[in-house]
Amino acid sequence: MRANEFAGNWLSERYYSNPTLQSQKNPEFWGVYYFGQAGGPGRTCLAASNRAVIEKALQKYTSGKYPTVIEICDRHFCCGCMDGLAIKVFCSNGKTPTKAYAVFAKLMAELEEYPILDEDDWSKREWELFEGLLHETVENTLYFVADKEVTEGQVEDLCHRFKTEMLPLGKIDTSEGSFPYQEVESFVRTCVGSPKEDDTKLDYASYNGTYKSKKHGDDTVCVQWYPGVGSFYVACYVNGKMAHQGSFDLGGLNKLIKKEGFVIQ
Asked: Fewer CB within 10 Å, N- or C-terminus of the chain?
């Protein structure tokens, strides 16, 4: 990445607001590197890993009386806030690159050669994501097939069994975007016995309907499964008026039903 091209790149982004840079002396000496939409969905483990490496490498340049790296969050009329780093490219003479830019340029050159800055960090993040999805899927499946209260110990035990019995076979892809939902559900059903052994996946739509509370008289809850979102929309009505609403996964919905004593009408 050429210093002359990076410096002042934000000045051509007419739809972004950069009050922090506009207040700097020689704002044209600064360049902006955006990580993406602040808090936006779909951020991958690889993107998060590379971001962590870049931020760590530039951290020491963010402090002091005259920092040469500033964390920013700019507003865009279309996609909201975009977060990233503002990096001072040139020293006060307008010719000598700053140390911060030299580090940043080296990292960008590495990314052009190979898209992963830290293999170990990326692999760790992918494994943590896999373990989180495994725990969630095992818990949701247990709530569906078990006829008694599900404990954390049961969930942890099945997660451990799946990792020790299924992963060594080499048929399970643990990379991001390839989580084996059906394999996990089938494994749990085999381990605990399923009332619907011919099913290959959970029938989430069977939860749709209106539930009445045993504890609170005429209070009702409307439940609707949205496959595109991957969660249940739940609306609670008290005395015929909506009291609150929200989204739940299967485990959360079952806990709500059991806690409040709801029964299908």
From this structure: C
pTM: 0.69
- Cβ atoms of 61 and 99 within 8 Å: the answer is yes
pLDDT band at 208 (very low <50, low <70, confident <90, very high): confident
Mean pLDDT computed over every residue of the chain:
80
Count Cβ neighbours within 10 Å for each residue of 192-226 and write b for 16 or more, e otherwise: eebeeeeeeebebeebeeebebeeeeebbbebebe
The rounded distance, in Å, linking the Cα atoms of 57 and 80 is 27
Closest CA to 29 of 116, 106, 90: 90
Token pair of 171, please?
Answer: 């048929």
82 is written with which tokens?
């975009």
Domain-located, residue 199:
no
Mean pLDDT over residues 41-54, rounded?
85
d(CA 163, CA 165): 6
Residue 72, CA distances (Å) to 46, 82, 140, 182 in order: 21, 8, 39, 41
pLDDT for residue 205 = 64
Q: Which of 192, 215, 244 is the last residue in one of the domains?
A: 192
Last residue of a domain, one of 192, 216, 250: 192
Please classify residue 34 by burial: count the beta carbons closer than 10 Å to its beta carbon, then call 0-12 exposed, 13-18 middle and 19+ buried.
middle
Helix (H, G, I), strand (E, B) or coil at 97: strand
> Does residue 245 belong to any structural domain of this protein?
yes
